[in-house]
User: Fold this.
Amino acid sequence: MTEKISSPGARTRVRMIKFAAGVGLAMVLNTAAAHHSFAIFDAKKSVTLHGVVKQFLWTNPHVFIQLMADGEAGAAATEWSIEMSSPEHLVRAGWKPGTLKSGDPVTLVIHPVRNGIKGGQFVSRIAADGTQIDLPSTTQAPESK
Amino acid sequence: MTAPAVLVKAALMGCALLLTVTATGEAATPAEERAHAFERLPNWTGQWEIVGVTPDAQGGYVQSLDEVVKEMRKWGPPPYKPDVKAAFEKTAAEVKRRSDAAANGTDAPTPGLRPACSFGVPMLMLFSPLMFEVLTTPEETAMIFSGREIRHIYTDGRPHTAKEDLWPTSWGDSIGHWEGQTLVIDTIEVSNPPGLGGGGPVIIAGGGDNDAVALVAALSPDVHFIERIRMVDPNHLEDRMTIIDPKSFTAPWHISRQYSRVTRIHRMVHEDCEGEERNPVVGGRFTIAPPPKQ
Assistant:
């Protein structure tokens, strides 16, 4: 079952710019994890998905959670592709290839893909006690000297 | 450092080597002398990341765009010449326009898109999500970044590579020397793929919501970087960078960043831009492709 929830503090997303050779001003906005712009996701919308992990794909250049999300009002579960950052970034954020396993029940908050397909960007997990975990690092203060 | 100065320095180092004696009064062997040289070097082993740019599971970072820009301009804005400043501001406005369009979901991939695993100098040191290691030897310091980029900083007293043997690269030509525990790096011949501004490297800040980025400086191919890297405390390094670009600036521009130890992993893990891409472009927009068949 899906439901829209409020989106307090839309998360920070850092994009890198690379330049298309020979195109002068033409440039592309890429994620810092490289590859493409995350503008495919609607950061102004957040959706909560309850379901079961079908696969946790620890792959380059992006990690994906294949989630069988509960259907509404008893409808059949549907598969969603939840995109995360790269393995290199995820391990620095405390994730491991075995953090999620097939069959794990999970509740995820995502930013949905703009074009309406069943996909989205990982925002956070909701633990059994209802607290959000794995939140974006924007919620933490940078440590500097 | 000029070539004659380097030769004088090398000669003095040679004399010092000849005069080095062991505790027993015998001249030190080359191996012993090198071991002593190692003892004088700081230990910067481990993994480092730019403070405020610790990645999260979502692909974002701690600092907002405004915070990154503010920190980059801590020592003042780029001291552009008036005519260069006008051109820069026009380019920066175009970057902002595109950044805003991306944030609104109205951007489209540009032909020629290529993976952004390569950041080059000075972005690797100023705004990059990549962690890195610093390996110091008496002759060379190597900085190894998780995008598989490497900076080679030769500290054996050599001058810059001769002009006829040099061409612009994303990392430039770097030589260095130690002033106590501070590594001083001198880098020239830095370029980026053709893009913005004066044809040389650019400095871009990211952060904020969505795809917000800002062009902080666009430099000429003649730009010259001098960095002073030191350990501030056991868990922080600092790079104080002076950017000398007489074609663009009226005076050297100073900028600095700090790096903290990566805390959740204690080995190098590299980005892999060559993996299977599940974000194809369909109808001018990126989308998500189904997972590969098992």
Observations:
- The radius of gyration of chain B is 22 Å.
- The first helix of chain B runs from residue 3 to 19.
